[in-house]
Predict the 3D structure of the following.
Amino acid sequence: MEKLMIEGGKVLKGKISVSGAKNSAVALIPAAILAESPVTIEQLPNISDVHTLSELLEEIGGEVTLENTKLTVDPSKMVAMPLPSGKVKKLRASYYLMGAMLGRFKKAVVGMPGGCHLGPRPIDQHIKGFEALGAKVTNEQGAIYLRADELIGARIYLDVVSVGATINIMLAAVRAKGQTIIENAAKEPEIIDVATLLTNMGAKIKGAGTDVIRIEGVDSLHGCRHSIIPDRIEAGTFLIMAAAMGKEVIIENVIPHHIESLIAKLREMGVHIEANEDQVYVAKQDNMKSVDIKTLVYPGFPTDLQQPFTSLLTNATGTSIVTDTIYNARFKHVDELRRMGANIKVEGSAAIIEGKRQLQGARVKASDLRAGAALVVAGLMAEGITEVTGLEHIDRGYENLVSKLKGLGANVWRETMDEQEIEKMQNA
Ligand SMILES: CC(=O)N[C@H]1[C@@H](OP(=O)(O)OP(=O)(O)OC[C@H]2O[C@@H](n3ccc(=O)[nH]c3=O)[C@H](O)[C@@H]2O)O[C@H](CO)[C@@H](O)[C@@H]1O
Ligand SMILES: C=C(OP(=O)(O)O)C(=O)O
């Protein structure tokens, strides 16, 4: 087991490049199940969620080759093998195996997904969608059983705007008979990316990226090549790091339009940002002003950036309020930031941050992926050394974080933990 060491206070300068989007990748890989010939996905991030999903596709008979950032899946020999436990528990996105296998085989058995602990993460809207398409869905000992004689297109109104449910229903509906209409659909860029792959595979989808998606089912789908969009959350994390410690930082391979809500808030704080087609230039501002943020569905401020942004706000003068309307208990990072000297109170779904505080290096633990990102931001700003454990969470979503940050001049490295340290961490 390893821990991440960060010597804080170093100025960040230079270029950093964004990898392919995790939350697209984890849907595009299961989508390959729907084809009958090989699908190649390019620019994939080298993160553990991608490896876990590739292994899951192998478990159901897929021939998978993963070379650097390119994955080829030959799904022709896949079978509807039950996946009630094991690797499906390692990540959230294993729920996309439900929609994809239901679409291809008209049946699936998939264990309840894992992923970050952000409070309750129900999948009732996914199930409502599958049932509307004609599937019988039961939960037996922690696994979801889905079966349909035939999938028939339907009009589905989502009671909650959900990225996961929108994509999952799309995956099943492309192979249903007739038309499916998803109303109150989520509009995240990852949904457009998945719809683009499916369209290249022969699906008929209109309206992805708006709140009404229309799908005309087809009898079969074929292989294709697809290049994934850049990760807006990784890009956003780098922007936040640069706002905290950056002199002249250029973030490359980014679609600035995807992170407009973050850019607007950083500018409101006084951070200097210039954006062109696929690059963003950031320069730190010494007297950042406090701001309030409220997380919302896209194009609102993303919940996935709320945690790293909270760390930045400890360095802004005045009181900031961060409200998470998507996951109102997504505040596990706050206790750890307090250990580093932050003055933050959590009241209901809001965190109240009193700045400006000079954080101090400490031993902290990442409880989930973006809590980990928040602690890295805090470590870069802190005086002295910060030790971050719980790296398995960070490795789910950030490719080569250490070498990318080193490229900007940060002093960060990984160290193997000894047995005593592991025991101490587990008992903490
Ligand atoms: C693998 C993946 O892409 N994960 C992302 C996805 O997670 P996830 O798929 O969990 O998030 P959703 O967009 O589905 O959920 C949004 C909100 O709807 C609620 N809800 C969702 C589904 C459902 O059936 N019932 C229900 O009530 C959730 O509890 C949450 O409050 O979107 C989140 C919100 O942008 C991001 O934080 C995660 O990074
Ligand atoms: C919460 C996240 O991931 P997951 O849904 O995979 O747990 C995330 O990407 O911030």
About this structure: Residues 22-23, 91-93, 115-116, 304, 369-370, 397 surround phosphoenolpyruvate (ligand 2) (CB under 6 Å). Residues 232-245 form the longest helix (14 residues).
